[in-house]
Design brief:
With 262 residues, the chain is an alpha+beta fold. The protein contains five helices and 17 strands. The strands form three sheets. Strands 9, 11, 12, 14, 15, 16 and 17 form a seven-stranded antiparallel beta sheet that branches. A six-stranded antiparallel beta sheet has the order 5-6-3-10-13-8, with no helix packed on it.
Length: 262
């Protein structure tokens, strides 16, 4: 096994956290700012790269940093290592409501592709890189754009998405999905974009211009509430952000906010 072998426990329902247990000298890598709490005896360090190739040259590490800049993530990843002589724990959580998906990479073919902000943490040895979408249609009109994250390894990895998570197993099948609702899919699934329907459906159906198509045999993870959709609704109903307000159902809602200065 190339990756460190870690155990874990997931807490919560809609605002989940994952607590990872590390044996002495074991390491877990995570996105910057994802850590919630950790036991004494855990050492952490921000490093360039995921540590999957410790002998990689400085040029290679700089190229990895450049790729991460394209995804909008932090240029560094944080490595948490148990430097004590007994088992120690460290916990991570995502910055918005949703679910944490534990992925045993060895069981899914050691590779998974996910939306660019889905990765949360993984056992050391997991390679976290980006994949440019080769299809122009998927690149320009897909919710994930040209850039997707690709995880490779044979240990545990954890990804995060909004709302309820649905796991679908495709057997030489095709499924059509709202572009923002895709969380991740395994290596044998082909991803593309197609028109949502006729012009009337496009302009009045409320489903957008394009839908994603996922086809093949493998595992697909979908989310019910993409963060972009949540953010749009918050902005739409926040007066201070220029959106309209419904007063939370109260007839006096607007008047009350006027008195309160809102």
């Amino acid at each position: 096994m190339r990756c460190h072998e870690i155990t874990y426990e997931i807490f919560g329902d809609d605002m989940q956290a994952v607590e990872v247990e590390l044996d002495p000298n074991e390491t877990v890598i995570a996105e910057a700012g994802a850590m919630n709490w950790m036991d004494d005896g855990i050492s952490f360090e921000a490093k360039m790269g995921d540590g999957s190739q410790p002998n990689k040259s400085m040029l290679g590490k700089l190229m990895d940093v450049g790729k991460r800049a394209l995804t909008g993530e932090s240029l560094f990843m944080t490595h948490f290592t148990n430097i004590s002589g007994i088992k120690r724990k460290v916990a991570f959580a995502a910055p918005y409501p949703g679910k944490i998906i534990p992925v045993n990479m060895a069981e899914i073919g050691e590779e998974i592709t996910c939306q660019k902000d889905a990765f949360l943490c993984a056992a050391l040895g997991t390679e976290v890189t980006i994949a440019f979408n080769k299809r122009l249609g998927a690149g320009f009109f897909g919710g994930e754009g040209f850039i997707l994250e690709k995880l490779r390894g044979d240990g545990m990895a954890f990804i995060h998405a909004g709302g309820t998570i649905v796991r679908k197993q495709l057997n030489n099948q095709l499924i059509k999905v709202d572009t923002g609702c895709i969380v991740a899919f395994t290596g044998n699934i082909q991803y593309d974009i197609q028109m949502a329907g006729n012009l009337k459906s496009v302009f009045f159906g409320g489903e957008g211009l394009f839908l994603a198509t996922l086809q093949g045999s493998g595992t697909v993870y979908l989310q019910s509430l993409p963060f972009s959709r949540l953010a749009d609704r918050v902005i739409q109903h926040a007066p201070s952000m220029g959106g309209s307000s419904k007063g939370e159902g109260s007839v006096l809602g607007g008047f009350g906010r006027m008195l309160g200065g809102a």
